[in-house]
Structures are given as C-alpha cells and as structure tokens.
Amino acid sequence: xxxxxxxxxxxxxxxxxxxxxxxxxxxxxxxxxxxxxxxxxxxxxxxxxxxxxxxxxxxxxxxxxxxxxxxxxxxxxxxxxxxxxxxxxxxxxxxxxxxxxxxxxxxxxxxxxxxxxxxxxxxxxxxxxxxxxxxxxxxxxxxxxxxxxxxxxxxxxxxxxxxxxxxxxxxxxxxxxxxxxxxxxxxxxxxxxxxxxxxxxxxxxxxxxxxxxxxxxxxxxxxxxxxxxxxxxxxxxxxxxxxxxxxxxxxxxxxxxxxxxxxxxxxxxxxxxxxxxxx
Length: 279
Hints:
The structure is a single chain. This protein is mostly helical. The protein has twelve helices and no strands. The protein has helices spanning 2-20, 22-29, 33-55, 61-78, 84-96, 99-114, 121-143, 148-172, 174-179, 196-217, 222-244, 259-274. It is globular, with a radius of gyration of 18 Å.
C-alpha cells in the first residue's frame, strides 16, 4: 500500500528538518500532532531547494534545481513521487491548495543561482516574498486548516514573520553568504564597512516586522500558537544578540544562540504559554 511509502516519505522530511535546523525542529515539536507532519513536509521541500542553490558548489546547481522543479511538477500531477521529500510535499500541496505559493518560492531560489546583489528595495522585497513570506503563508494554511477567512485575517502577520526570520538569517549568515556565495541582500549596505548606524537601521526594520507578526501569533489556533511562539522567541533572542554584536564582527563569525539558551527560551516560552501570558 502507498500509505506505508507515505509514512517513510514523511520520515525523510523529518530527518532533513532535524539534521539542518535544531531551532525549527524544536518549534515543530511544539505544534499539535495533527498539524506537525504537514509542517515537516513543507520544511523538507524548502530545505532541499535551498540547499541546491546554497550548498552544492562544484555541482551543476542549475541542472539540479531544474530537475527538482520538474520532479515536483510530476509529483503534483501524479500524486506520487519516488523522491520521498516530493512525495510528502505534494500531498500537502493538494490538501491545502499551496500551488500558487510554491511558484514564487522556486523563482526566488532560482534568483540565488545568478543574482549576487540587491540594489533596489523592490528587488529585495520580491526576493524575500518568494524565499520567506510564502513559506510563512504555506504554514499558515496548515495552521488554520484551510479556513480561508482566518487565513486572510492572519496573512499579513504570517508574511511579516517570514520576512523577519529571513532578515535575521541574512545577518546571522552574513559571513558565509558574503565570503562563500558572494551575496549581498540588504540594498545600499557595504558590509566591508558596516557601521553601527547601518546595523541599527536593519535591526529596527526587523523589529518592526516582529511587532506585526506577534499580533498574528496571538490569534493563531491553539494547535499552532505555542510552536510558532517558540520560534518567534528564538529569533527575537538571536536578533538581540545581533544588536549587541559590533559591526566588524559580522564578517568574522556566524552569530548564533547556544543550545543551553535555546532550551531556556523553550522553558520560558512554555511557562508563559501555560500561564496564558502570551497576550
């Protein structure tokens, strides 16, 4: 029966999530069981595409992305794929009607193959929409279980949360992106001469995104609220550490939150959730 292969496929997406992101793995575990697997399937798909364009130097990245996209289209049409990640993802796409959100995501992934610098705000925002905002929207579709009215009400907040996460990632991974991939995402910022004023402006922009996102988190269904809040608190802590980092340090090291601090964030988040203090 295909059901057994579907279980194995989902296990593959879970393994990818746990291997590549301890923070998101922790947050997903805090979601209700009935929505957890669908988020694993989404993460497995977006992580594979992201790794093709970010990590597979020395291989034919464009060809790999072309093949990945073609196999995804086949999986969508056939409702099955021998690629376990695509097999798990196509089921979620069909269940929640995510097809229109996948298109801009793959377009942004394709931009990473050739585009190294974003010189205008419009280009920058288009890239973030495709690479991050739509992922937030995919997850939101799952969180509200396809309820279109609730989805529309929370759409802006979900996009802002995706934007905030992505911008924090840009700063956290600045050393690798700049030195290894030659990418500069923030328009008009010279990271060879990053100033405190530049950094504060970017941090303020991200905090503004987080403010809008938090209002949406408060309105999420109970099945999703704690998991999303946990991820929110982790990224807020990471942004705080970024704000405390000297500008000349960004090209010297990757900014990160220690594992003990992650567990502390989880504990505090759980306590606030249990005491109904997420307001």
